[in-house]
Specification:
GO terms for molecular function: aldose 1-epimerase activity. The protein is mainly beta. 3% of the residues lie in helices and 53% in strands. The chain has one domain: Beta-galactosidase, Chain A, domain 5, CATH 2.70.98. Strands 11-12-13-14-28-24-23-18-21 form a 9-stranded antiparallel beta sheet, with no helix packed on it. It has a 6-stranded antiparallel beta sheet with strand order 17-26-25-22-19-20, with no helix packed on it. A 5-stranded antiparallel beta sheet has the order 1-2-3-4-5, with no helix packed on it. A hairpin with a 5-residue loop joins strand 19 and strand 20. The radius of gyration is 19 Å and the shape is globular.
Length: 315
Amino acid sequence: MPFEIFKQQFGDLTEYVIHETTTENRCVVIPELGGIVRQLSLRKGLTLFSVLKTPPTPAALVADTKSASELLFPFASRIPDGKYKFLGKEYQLRKNEDGGLNAIHGLVRKNHFHLDEQVIHEDNASIQLSYAIDNAEGYPFQVHFSVRYTLHADGRFELKYEAKNNGQSPCPAMFGWHPYWMLGNEDVEAWKINIPSKRLVTFNENLIPIGTEPFDMAMPALLHRKEFDNCFIVEANGPHAVTELISKNQDVTLRIEQETGEGKFNYLVVYTPPARDCVAIEALTANVDAFNTGEGLNILAPGHGIDGTITVSLT
């Protein structure tokens, strides 16, 4: 078989590698550090591109506060002052954002995930990880969260998350993935971006949503001297929406496809860090602060679940 899965050490961290031997495509996953994908390498023609930017050392990865490649559940982005109301009750989350103003990015990041399954087929290989939330501070619910990473023979990488309410009462749920994307050693100034949206979310000075406004930038847009730190409402003509990063010089396009529709990934964050060497493209199932506004929020009844898929490829 062209696929293999093996373990290796990254400092004190244990990684699991899904490797396709014909193309050298691979993804590297760290269950004990929030189940993150540390590395994703995909081939286009003669070039093997490392497309995820993450901290370069084990210590830097453990200490990272920028959420590189982290899984964000049961909420993503900010909840102001860590407070939210759900079904008439008030809850207080730990204010874990730098500066202590807000709760940010959920409850599973940096935690030790359980390795549920490793599967190798002729045309794909996958790893499934899970983490159980059980009456966490500010989130007194029981939710089983899992993620399956799959590498396909045609070069597609797939992330599928699932969340099931194992408790006795309804619970709010939102998921997002926080990868920083790069294309070789080229910096952001040379790339174009194609954002599948005609409407963006407007924020206050605390980066909390206060409304929406039209987004009418011509696409694809050259990123030279453009800065993004925006949440977009996704526009989809079918069951998926695609964001593209395009490098004309390298003749390669990175495609991030998010499943859309009821309960799926109908929001998108795009952020250009000051170093201008990568772009964060984050598919979200709900708007920022959805725990308070309800915008896109999934409410899981006892025994019920939700899932969604993000697919990454090069063309």
